# Entry
Amino acid sequence: MSTAWPYDADRDDPLTTLRIPVASAWADWNYIVAFDKESAVRPDSTEARQLASCLRYYIDSWYTESYKARLAERPFDIDGGANGLTFHKYGPGDWGYRRRTWTMGPLYVPQSPRLRESARLTIGPLPLEQVMDRAYGHRDRPHARRLGLLTPPRPAFHQQGDRHGP
# Structure
């Protein structure tokens, strides 16, 4: 039995303990949430917890308990059906993200500070919390569930066996 590390993420990175792989923007594995190894700056402890919270939010929102158990069998949460997020830190309070399936357009949104200087229409710099809100479609306010302040909603059909809601 081989003991070789099969993942393209850094095995010894501190983010690994939070199940956040540090990998390329074009990782070989379908990580649900990752941190770009080419980032100029490392996340601080608060930002590392936010990355882990983002991962938990996605898993709690989309997966059954049995699938969560399957995810937990690996050191990282990997799902080929998820349109994974990779986060990139340009500098203090300056983050971008990309989706695994993006094949055109900018590498990260918001774009790098160097590209922002010449672009007429651009956003940024944005802190990680605002970048996560943009990634999940919440433009104007933090998403309380993603930040761990609320539990995921229960389906409307959970009462009295009525599968169609009230």
The first strand starts at residue 22 and ends at 23.
